[in-house]
């Protein structure tokens, strides 16, 4: 059964976040809040936990997987980030954006897109997500908590626990979070392109 811990959505309690970090480090799968939805997460190096998330979401290897990072230094470990990409990501984060970049060898092959060899990157603007990656001091493997056949992510942590009680190890309850997709920006040979318009507004890329 999944644990459920209530944290303050603006000033999360450090001791509770550290409990969540310990669960991640022990191979657990968690549901946690971001600036666009609740999401699933696990340790980047834990194949079994990642397989659990794949099973919950029913994702194949063609899905664009995402790493949640604490800052641009961490982003540069996992992606081949040029000066233009660096400046754009710095300008738009933290915020509801997913950036698709070429992956470095630090990204496990099973996380990379099989053809493009890319990885998604997020720096969410939510205190809980930010404290989680800061305390973990590593990137989190993460994906939106939307279930197969459903168009929107689950919004209520009690509903998440009820529906996924035997799949998850922890649900971090920071209140209701209404689902809005992130804006997805892919860096191509022709520069950055918005491939999905969502919550985030990148005025420098829109006409």
Describe this structure in words.
A hairpin with a 2-residue loop joins β9 and β10. This protein starts with a strand and ends in an 11-residue tail after the last strand. The chain has 207 residues and is of the alpha/beta class. The protein has a ten-stranded mixed beta sheet with strand order 1-8-2-3-7-4-6-5-9-10, with helices on both faces. It has helices at 14-25, 47-57, 72-78, 83-92, 127-136, 157-164, and strands at residues 3-6, 30-33, 38-43, 66-68, 97-102, 118-122, 140-144, 170-173, 183-188, 191-196.
CATH architecture classification name: Alpha-Beta Complex
Mean pLDDT: 94
What sequence of helices (H) and strands (E) makes up the elements? Answer: EHEEHEHHEEHEHEEE
The gyration radius over C-alpha positions equals: 16 Å
Can you tell me the number of structural domains? Answer: 1
The geometry reads as globular
Helix content: 25-40%
CATH structural class: Alpha Beta
């Amino acid at each position: 059964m999944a644990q459920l811990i209530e944290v303050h959505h603006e000033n999360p309690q450090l001791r509770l976040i550290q409990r969540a970090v310990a669960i991640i480090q022990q191979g657990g799968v968690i549901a946690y809040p971001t600036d666009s939805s609740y999401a699933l997460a696990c340790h980047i190096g834990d194949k079994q936990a990642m397989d659990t998330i794949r099973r919950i979401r029913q994702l194949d290897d063609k899905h664009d997987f995402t790493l949640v990072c604490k800052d641009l230094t961490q982003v540069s470990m996992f992606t081949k980030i040029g000066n233009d990409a660096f400046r754009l990501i710095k300008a738009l984060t933290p915020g509801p954006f997913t950036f698709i970049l070429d992956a470095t060898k630090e990204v496990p092959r099973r996380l990379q897109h099989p053809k493009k060899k890319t990885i998604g990157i997020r720096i969410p603007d939510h205190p809980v997500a930010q404290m989680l990656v800061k305390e973990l001091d590593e990137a989190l493997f993460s994906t939106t908590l939307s279930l197969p056949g459903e168009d929107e992510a689950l919004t209520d942590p009690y509903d998440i626990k009820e529906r996924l009680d035997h799949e998850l190890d922890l649900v971090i309850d920071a209140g209701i979070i209404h689902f809005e997709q992130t804006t997805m920006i892919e860096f191509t040979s022709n520069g950055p392109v918005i491939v999905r318009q969502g919550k985030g507004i990148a005025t420098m890329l829109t006409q």
